[in-house]
Specification:
The complex is a heterotetramer of chains A (134), B (127), C (780) and D (515). Helices cover 75% and strands 6% of the residues of chain A. Chain A is mainly alpha-helical and 134 residues long. Chain A has one domain. Chain A has a two-stranded antiparallel sheet. In chain A, a hairpin with a 2-residue loop joins strand 1 (97-100) and strand 2 (103-106). The longest helix of chain B has 32 residues, at 67-98. Chain B has helices spanning 2-20, 25-46, 50-59, 67-98. In chain B, helix 1 runs antiparallel to helix 2 (25-46). Chain C has 780 residues and is mainly α. In chain C, strands 1-2 form a two-stranded antiparallel sheet. In chain C, strand 1 and strand 2 (51-57) form a beta hairpin. In chain C, helix 2 packs across helix 19, helix 4 packs antiparallel against helix 5 and helix 14 (310-340) crosses helix 19 (456-472). The longest helix of chain C is centred in the N-terminal third of the chain and has 32 residues, at 137-168. The two termini of chain C are 60 Å apart. In chain D, strands 1-2 form a two-stranded antiparallel sheet. Chain D is mainly alpha-helical. At the C-D interface, strand 1, helix 5, helix 6, helix 22 and helix 23 of C face helix 1, helix 4, helix 5, helix 6 and helix 8 of D.
Chain lengths: 134, 127, 780, 515
């Protein structure tokens, strides 16, 4: 499996997959997609990388423990739920929206980013955990 | 449509139960995966896909099944996936430690290791 | 045993002041209570349910309170000396005081539930006291036994109290007495009676629940003297006396109490004669006394006799008399044990010179016990006899009480005459008199017995008649005197004394005969208790071995069978099974998908190859994703496909490290059929329920709202995504928490293993229990 | 006030994240964990105070009107249970300081523990049945994580059983929710209360109710679905099993109480009769199991099963006093049971074992421990004046009021056997002399004495307080029971007062076309 062709292919594919996963994340609010799908796509890309180049390579690439990514994602999601209410005194997870250059940007999108991070972090934790173990 | 989906849910349910009743832990985990499939399909069916089909026939709009049911299923898919993966890891670690995947042979927690089961004197007389 | 050099802790002497002070306080109430003014105090505890901390000092309560505090004073004094040098004296003293206070609570409570609270407190404290010598397994067994037996009775009694409260509309005894509710005619009267009597009889050790009391003699002597003579065991008697005006007066009440009481009295008096341990003899005579009390509380007086409730007077008088003589005798027995080193009358004798004060006290008490004039015992016995003669069961009751009393006379001689006056055995340590706290109490009580006999009018008018009035529910007119002339009761007294003396004289022959008769009893309470407890233990082991067998397959089978059976039953019972009205128009693609999924599911079941199973599982997932897609659920379908991909990746990674299916020991044919049937029932019921649900009208209210609101308020066109991140963001928050936690847990699970040496590993295989106790763990 | 309602979820969930980040820093992690525990406690107190003063409090999460968004609701029952949860969490955190090595397991323990609390509180506060499911899952995964960390043989074995049965339970719950949603078209529990009254096929509703009984029944470990509990509770660290013993099954009981007073009340003669039978069998089976065991934690685990029966009994009677008794029993039980597990851990630490045959002599060597065992043990057995007595009395009285004598008799007999079990421990661990081949008992160090015994003392004090000063607790339970019996206030707080009085088409809302 560990052939040169695959190696090269992955090197090209991985960025593509990651970009498309972020695309999925961002368009999710209006079209099919969203944090889950985006995160899952990215995870598939990463697991491909793991299969081809090994767990060590992925760890080097990430430069951080994927568990932290999951934790950051969860933190982002919680904070996004606190921002809106902090501004307006409304209940937890109330959305707050603003317009940046004609594009509506709001806390639900930040929340979705949190979802994305948790999915990626969790999947990589699973995969690396299993892979590294014998 | 609901008839065939309901039947399918039944088949999946029965298959998963049958797998779970196996003494092989791996089969149990596979059964778990089937069980969550069955549950998701059940929500999908129960949540009202049938109306979407009739509405498609009526006004020709794109098929749109109950979006809340979809959201619920999405949530359920991710949750059951997390738990399924964890269960797999658990099965793996159990195999590593107990050196078996036969649940009948897993006797580390139960029953109580006792030379004289139930013969301990209630008043604490050394037996 | 005695460590004469050990100091007596100051607190154990000082604490005597508490009961003494209380005694004085209660004594100061005597005039007003005797004058008919009961004291009452109440504060709310749980007023919503009518549970108030209500205390009521009437004649009966006061009599008991005086006995408890009066005897308690001397017992505590005695204990301070007796327990000198023992370990855990502080705890012992505290429990004894706690017991005394609980007992006071029992006799002074006006509220049945509060009474129960104190009742159980006496159970607990006596448990702790009986088990004082906890190194001794007999003491532990006795403590457990008393807790179980009296506890069982108490629970029945609680049920009885609840019934009683519901019937009377109040838990307050005063209100019950004042109220005109006809409890005897209540449909649940017999149930109440049985339940309450269960509590009273177990506590007061009536046959057949008597066996725990002699076993409880494993406790230190002060405990036996206090709990098992003067007070705790009297709680049952007290309760019967207390409830006599409420529940009594019926045939059921009279027959039960008289029957059980009389039998207990005669039986235990006979047993007493066959014992050789001083405390055992006294314990059985206590049982006799309790039997007598119970009997006379219930003894129905024949109509036509004068209006004096003689039974109540007799019972109350006997409670009083018994407390005055039994506590001293127990204390003297303890002193003998202390100084002579044994309590066995066969190796005792000739103590009169060494222990003069104890002899004096014991003699006074024994004379009262035998009912020799002019002691209180004589007065009490006269009343017993005249009450028995005048009762409905005249001859039988009289015969029973005379027989029991005659044997008691013999027992009194046995416990005093043998150790003090008999031949001194050849070999024994030199006995000596105990220090003053060990005999002063006995002496005072003995003198009090004499005094009460000499001036009966005093005792009766101030104490006993008000108490009897409370028992009978009306004030008795009764002239007490020492001398009633030569009448039938006196004749019976003479008969009793002579028969007792005769029995003592012929005691060897008598005890032999009694002993062999008793040995022939097929079952004793004690052996029945053992049988029951062992039975429970055995049943529990068998039961638990069946239900909690440790085999996961069987657990799951039961769970699924329960599910299938209960849902199917409900479906049938409620008539929910409905077939779709019309044949659905199903497209070819849908058919194909359904068949594909079903077939793959079956392959997953049947496959003997891991790889095949994984692939088939993937096909099922993909097929379901396609079903979602077919109905426009593109988000779900997409997620499902991605998840399916990852599942296959992860499953392949893990599963290939695990052994294949072939190593599985095949199920037997029967087991496979059983599994198949359960699976099919679960599957079938799911289908049926789902069909029934889809047959109902569908509701799209929520979805319509979401579709209407998503763009204008949620600023998103993908309704499903808006639901996920906004409308139902909390679900998603929980969901990603699950995901993150699962990942962290799985990671920890894989990378964390207990570090263990080979020895520890071998040990933990032998004793898996001991694992994880103090083992270093590391994160590798 | 809506903040207070979300607080018991947000605080521990954030604490889980923060302590997760601090995994490498034992000391700071502990401090943060403790502070979070205190913060949760403070929030819970404030929430209960608020509910006490102002009645049922609801928060529309995301500011979407119910039944469209997710609602969190705190009525008296929820608020009390959240408070008890916070107390147990605090006790567990303190206990863990000594029970679990700082650099070892503790680093994962704290995040998982806080996540578990978030799940538990979330389940108590959820006003939406699917949200309830989600919190059940959070609880489940956090609990499996806690159960298995350490990875000993027994723990792995136990985790397999626990995971297997719990996963089935939650999936079954999901199935039930899917069916209920298909039938009524709503998930909000207050809304469900109104919608189910419009369902014409009542039999179908009963069928779904039975599915819920089974799903929650596994969670709350009732007969014959309890197997996972005695199979697992004796294996993890003491801190963990104490938290489990106090909280996990009680969430199942709570869910049954909520669902079978708010939603499935259409066929009480059927569903609640089932529950009554279940209650009786659960009591008996649990207490027999306990009698057959000779290990401290195994005995205590089986007693949990037994006492679940009492709580279900209160629900099954479905009278104000019955529910009151059930709620009272639940609160009492959580405190006492967690405490007993803490004490069992201390016994094991000082006495060297948790097997009765290997114990002894602690009455002489550790009198304080003896006293601290005595209080919860005899409270569990229902002796006055401890909290257990009132719990039992209320239930007995409630069952006798409605002439259910058989269940009352069962409850009393089981109470006696509970006393027998507790006495068995007492006789063997405390009164009996030490076995000759056992190591001598070890006096506790100062830190052990504080961290292991402070939680025990605190919980014992609560037990005593409930027993001696019962009236306020009764009143609290009474209010909670009243709210369960008469859901109008609950529904009003969630959907607005119109929904209650109207009971008609649908609550105010843009999409409200009803059916």
């Amino acid at each position: 499996m560990n052939t040169l062709v695959l190696r090269v292919a992955t090197r090209i594919l991985l960025p593509l997959i990651l970009v498309s996963s972020i695309f999925m994340l961002l368009r999710g609010h209006n079209q099919p997609g969203g944090g889950f799908v985006g995160g899952l796509i990215a995870s598939i890309g990463f697991s491909l990388h793991v299969f081809v180049s090994g767990a060590e390579a992925l760890r080097r690439m990430l430069r951080t423990d994927p568990r932290w990514i999951a934790a950051v994602g969860l933190g982002v999601a919680i904070i996004s739920g606190l921002v809106g209410p902090y501004a307006s005194g409304t209940p937890f997870l109330t959305s707050a929206w603003t317009s940046v250059g004609g594009v509506k940007v709001g806390t639900p999108l930040v929340f979705d980013v949190g979802v994305y991070l948790v999915v990626v972090g969790a999947m990589l934790t699973f995969i690396l955990g299993i892979k590294e173990q014998g | 449509m609901e008839l065939i989906n309901a039947a399918l849910v039944g088949v999946l349910m029965a298959s998963s139960v049958y797998l779970m009743l196996s003494r092989n832990l791996v089969r149990f985990v596979l059964g778990l995966a089937l069980l969550s499939h069955a549950a998701n399909l059940l929500i999908f069916t129960g949540g009202g896909i049938t109306s979407s089909i009739t509405s498609r026939a009526a006004d020709g709009a794109t098929a749109e099944s109950d979006s809340l049911a979809q959201a619920l299923i999405l949530t359920a898919i991710v949750i059951s996936f997390s738990l399924f993966t964890f269960a797999l890891v658990l099965a793996f670690r159990t195999y590593e430690t107990l050196e078996t995947v036969d649940t009948d042979a897993m006797r580390a927690a139960e029953p109580e290791p006792s030379g004289h089961p139930g013969r301990t004197d209630p008043s604490g007389r050394p037996s | 045993m005695e460590k004469a050099s050990a100091r007596v802790p100051l607190y154990s002497r000082l604490v005597v002041a508490l009961p003494a002070g209380l005694f004085v306080w209660f004594a100061s109430m005597v005039p007003s209570v005797a004058g008919g003014e009961a004291q009452f105090a109440s504060i709310g505890w749980l007023p919503q349910l009518g549970v108030d901390l209500a205390f009521h000092v009437d004649g009966l309560g006061l009599l008991f309170a005086l006995l408890i505090t009066g005897v308690g004073t001397f017992i505590l004094l005695y204990a301070s000396e007796y327990m000198r040098g023992h370990p855990q004296v502080g705890r012992f003293t505290a429990f004894l005081v706690a017991f005394m206070l609980s007992m006071l609570g029992v006799v002074l409570s006006d509220n049945l539930i509060v009474l129960f609270v104190f009742w159980e407190l006496t159970t607990l404290t006596s448990f702790l006291l009986i088990g004082y010598s906890h190194g001794d397994s007999a003491a532990r067994r006795a403590a457990l036994q008393s807790l179980i037996v009296t506890g069982a009775g108490a629970l029945a009694m609680l049920a009885g109290f609840v019934l009683l409260g519901n019937a009377a509309g109040s838990y307050s005894l005063r209100e019950m007495l004042a109220g005109d509710s006809d409890l005897a005619g209540h449909p649940a009267y017999v149930a109440m009676l049985v339940l309450v009597l269960a509590g009273a009889f177990t506590k007061s050790a009536q046959f057949p629940f008597h066996f725990w009391l002699p076993n409880a003699m494993a406790a230190p002597t002060p405990v036996s003297a206090y709990l098992h003579s003067a007070t705790m065991v009297k709680a049952g008697v007290f309760l019967l006396a207390r409830l006599n005006p409420v529940l009594g007066g019926t045939d059921e009440w009279g027959m039960t109490l008289t029957g059980f009481g009389a039998f207990t009295a005669v039986y235990s008096a006979a047993v007493a004669l066959t014992r050789t341990d001083l405390k055992q003899i006294l314990a059985y005579t206590t049982l006799m006394a309790l039997g007598v009390c119970v009997m006379f509380i219930g003894l129905p007086q024949s109509r036509g006799a004068d209006e004096v409730p003689l039974g109540a007077v007799a019972a109350v008088a006997f409670v009083f008399v018994h407390a005055l003589y039994k506590a001293p005798l127990f204390m003297v027995a303890g002193t003998i044990d202390h100084s002579a080193g044994t309590r066995d009358i066969r190796s005792l004798g000739g103590l009169r010179k060494a222990m003069p004060w104890s002899l004096l006290a014991a003699a006074l008490a024994a004379l009262s016990m035998s009912g020799v004039p002019p002691f209180a015992g004589f007065v009490g016995k006269e009343i017993l006899y005249s009450s028995a003669i005048g009762s409905t069961y005249g001859v039988a009751a009289t015969a029973a009480i005379v027989t029991a009393n005659a044997m008691i006379v013999s027992a009194a001689l046995l416990v005093v005459a043998v150790p003090f006056l008999g031949q001194s055995p050849a070999t024994r340590p030199t006995p000596h008199e105990g220090r003053w706290p060990m005999w002063i109490g006995s002496l005072v009580l003995g003198v009090a017995a004499l005094g009460a006999g000499l001036f009966p009018r005093l005792a009766f008018e101030w104490l006993l008649l008000p108490a009897a009035g409370a028992v009978a529910g009306r004030q008795p007119h009764f002239e007490a005197s020492l001398w009633h002339g030569f009448n039938l009761p006196f004749a019976l007294s003479v008969v009793t004394l002579s028969a007792g003396a005769l029995a003592y004289w012929q005691r060897n022959r008598l005890t032999g005969a009694l002993g062999s008769a008793l040995a022939r009893l097929p079952v004793t309470g004690d052996s029945a208790y053992d049988w029951l407890m062992n039975g429970i233990a055995r049943v529990s082991v068998v039961h638990t071995r069946i239900v909690q067998c440790g085999i996961q397959r069987r657990y799951l089978l039961i769970v699924f069978a329960t599910l299938g059976a209960s849902v199917l039953t409900t479906l049938v019972v409620k008539g929910v099974i409905a077939w779709p009205a019309r044949i659905p128009d199903v497209s070819f693609v849908e058919w194909l998908l359904a068949i594909l999924i079903a077939a793959s599911a079956l392959v997953t079941i049947r496959s003997h190859s891991r790889l095949m199973a994984i692939v088939a599982l993937g096909v099922v997932g993909t097929g379901i994703a396609l079903i979602f897609l077919l109905h426009g659920a593109s988000d779900v379908a997409m997620t499902q496909l991605m998840v399916e991909t990852l599942v296959v990746v992860i499953v392949a990674m893990v599963l290939l490290k695990l052994p294949g299916f072939r190593r599985e020991v095949r199920q037997t044919g029967l087991g496979r059929w059983r599994d198949a049937i359960v699976s099919c029932v679960v599957g079938l019921t799911t289908t049926l329920v789902l069909l029934a649900v889809t047959a109902e009208p569908s509701h799209r209210r929520l979805t319509e709202y979401f579709q209407k609101t998503a763009v204008p308020e949620g600023f998103g066109a993908n309704v499903v995504n808006v639901i996920l991140v906004d409308f139902r963001g909390l679900d998603t928050l929980g969901e990603i928490s699950v995901l993150a936690l699962a990942a962290v847990s799985a990671y920890t699970l894989i990378n964390w293993r207990p570090r263990r040496s080979a020895r520890a590993a071998a040990r933990s295989k032998a004793f898996p229990e001991a694992e994880g106790a103090a083992k270093p763990e590391t994160l590798s | 006030m809506t903040w207070l309602v979300a607080g018991p979820i947000v605080v521990p969930l954030s604490a889980a994240v923060v302590t997760g980040f601090l995994m490498g820093y034992g000391g700071i992690q502990r401090l943060v964990s403790l502070c979070s525990g205190i913060a949760l406690f403070g929030t819970a107190v404030a929430l209960l105070t608020n509910v006490w003063n102002e009645g049922v409090t609801a928060a529309q999460i995301g500011n979407w009107p119910s039944p469209f968004g997710i609602t969190l609701v705190a009525d008296h029952l929820s608020a009390v249970l959240v408070l008890i949860t916070a107390i147990i969490a605090l006790a567990a955190i303190v206990y863990s300081f000594e029970d679990i090595e700082r650099r070892g397991l503790a680093t994962v323990l704290h995040p998982l523990l806080h996540a578990l609390m978030a799940g538990v509180c979330g389940a108590f506060l959820a006003g939406d049945i699917f949200n309830l499911y989600v919190w059940f899952e959070v609880m489940l995964i956090a609990s499996i994580g806690l159960l298995v960390v350490g990875g000993t043989r027994a723990q792995l074995d136990a985790s397999v059983r626990y995971a297997a049965l719990s996963l089935i339970a939650t999936t079954l719950l999901l199935t039930g929710i899917g069916l209920l949603y298909g039938l009524t078209g709503t998930l909000n529990m207050a809304d469900l209360h109104l919608r189910v009254q419009e369902v014409e096929n009542e039999g179908l509703l009963t069928v779904i109710a039975v599915i819920f009984i089974v799903a929650f029944g596994i969670k709350s470990a009732v007969f014959p679905l309890f197997f996972w509990l005695p199979a697992s509770y004796h294996t993890p660290k003491v801190t963990v099993s104490a938290v489990f013993s106090g909280l996990l099954t009680k969430v199942g009981v709570y869910a049954l109480m909520r669902v079978f007073t708010l939603i499935f009340t259409n066929d009480i003669g059927y569903t609640h009769e089932i529950l009554l039978w279940v209650a009786g069998f659960t009591m008996v089976t649990g207490v027999l199991g306990a009698a057959s065991r000779n290990d401290l934690r195994r005995i205590l685990s089986f007693h949990i099963v037994s006492q679940i029966g009492y709580m279900i009994m209160g629900l099954a009677l479905y009278t104000p006093l019955g529910l009151l008794g059930g709620i009272f029993y639940t609160v009492h039980h959580i405190i006492v049971k967690a405490n007993l597990f803490f004490v069992a851990g201390a016994i094991r630490r000082f006495g060297g074992s948790s097997r009765l045959a290997r114990l002894g002599g602690l009455y002489r060597d550790a009198p304080l421990l003896a006293a601290l065992f005595f209080i919860p043990a005899f409270s569990l057995a229902g002796f006055p004046p401890l909290s257990g007595f009132w719990a039992k009395f209320l239930l007995i009285r409630a069952s006798m009021d409605v002439h259910e004598y058989a269940i009352a008799a069962t409850a009393l007999a089981v109470g006696l056997l509970t006393a027998y079990s507790m006495t068995k421990i007492w006789l063997n661990a405390f009164w009996k002399g030490r076995p000759e081949d056992a190591m001598p008992t070890r006096p506790p160090s100062r830190s052990e004495g504080f961290f292991l015994l402070a939680p025990v003392v605190g919980l014992a004090a609560i037990t005593l307080a409930i027993g001696l000063y019962v009236q306020p607790f009764y009143e609290l339970a009474e209010r909670a029971a009243q709210e369960l019996m008469h859901p109008a206030e609950y529904v009003g707080a969630v959907l607005g007062e119109d929904a209650v009085s109207g009971a008609g088409p649908s609550p105010a809302g843009p999409g409200g076309s009803g059916n």
